[in-house]
Amino acid sequence: MLTTHPFDDDKLREECGIFGVSGSDSAAALAALGLHALQHRGQEAAGITSFDGHLFHTHRAMGHVAGNFDRDEVIRSLPGTVAAGHVRYSTTGETALRNVQPLYADLATGGFAIAHNGNISNAMKLRRELVRRGSIFQSTSDTETIIHLVATSNYRTLLDRFIDALKQIEGAYSLIVMTPEGMIACRDPLGIRPLVMGRLDDAVIFASETVALDVCGATFERAVEPGEMVIVQGSEIRSIKPFAPVSPRPCIFEWVYFSRPDSIAGDHSVYSVRKEIGAQLAIEAPVEADLVIPVPDSGVPAAIGYAQQSGIPFELGIIRSHYVGRTFIQPGDKVRHLGVKLKHNANRALIAGKRVVLIDDSIVRGTTSLKIVQMMRDAGAAEVHMRIASPPTRHSCFYGVDTPERAKLLAAKLDLGGMTDFIHADSLAFVSIDGLYKALGEARRADIRPSYCDACFTGDYPTTLTDQDDTSVVDQFALLAERVN
Predict the structure, then answer these.
(1) CATH fourth-level superfamily of 6-249
(2) 360 is known to lie in a ligand binding site
């Protein structure tokens, strides 16, 4: 099968995108629009749950938002003025309909639907304890742990039960919860995963990125703060902060790759930050060349910044086709290899005889970079230099990003020379961690807590990693994966 973006097969993938709306007669339709804008954050499955004042209604499906939520009969099956949506790329649990969110349960306090972006790093330990106490899990998703913690809490009100549940979990989460009383949106105390709030007439809207607000015509109000819960009940909105305050550490990779370039994240234009990363890269790793070429599409802003800073012309040396279907049957290795060119092809007339600088956002396993460099050489490039708009990815992420185990990360296995040889480039360079922070207008100092979660580059994890450190839990997870796959 040829995926939508063959060059993205070797990318870090965000786990999910979430969207919620309260107070609109077109709640489900708005949720579908919002999920379209967040499709890049999860392409395996999508779901929407609505509430009509009496009943909850859910439609969940494998695949993209388009084709599943662009039919009138689907939207009509989701009545109500409140709705929450989710797009998924799994990092925990198998790819199956039972793991597609929002997850729903009937609790003693009434219906409870939850959409989650992030990853609970002690989910397996909590799951083991909950099962021992009698909980029966219906999915393999870490998100279901939250439902069982709420259901088994000894507190009386739903809000107190929810807070009690969140105080027991570790890791990263942005959540949208629907109950008969209203909607709750919240972020973990470190604010690792993003969540913003907007308005559309009388409706309140929450989304993983501001672009989802733009697409549905809403006005951005502010980010949901780290450790904050925003509670919407009819026309009443209130905010509480039930957790001990800590210094936030949002995921720095949002600005490198995850967020759409037309989003605003943490008061920064994602597009502008990526251009500045490219400029920093040009300062740190200059090279004599004829063309700066982006690896589409994520490398484009950084390539523009590199070209502007270096004075080397920016050109589209790799042309992407937008008209290839999601699947393509590939009967053999030769056809499978050629299939990549259906989506991306070298601009041969431009490249032949030229010294080119390829700009990409990251190197994970290195397999994609190898193919791209070879594509340039096959097109007649005289020299191929690779520049990467992030530091080397040497560590796995445990906060809602699908990262290969560390042994499969190219930068964890090889030094710079070894990586250069592996991808067959004439030279290779990464932006430094200091350069990345400079692009965000900050400095990373070794003597103070960093402003962002940059653990995939530095190994400096901002939370404990209970499941990862507990070998018995890791073994249980492996056994669970074998049973469900």
Answers:
(1) Aminohydrolase, N-terminal nucleophile (Ntn) domain (3.60.20.10)
(2) yes
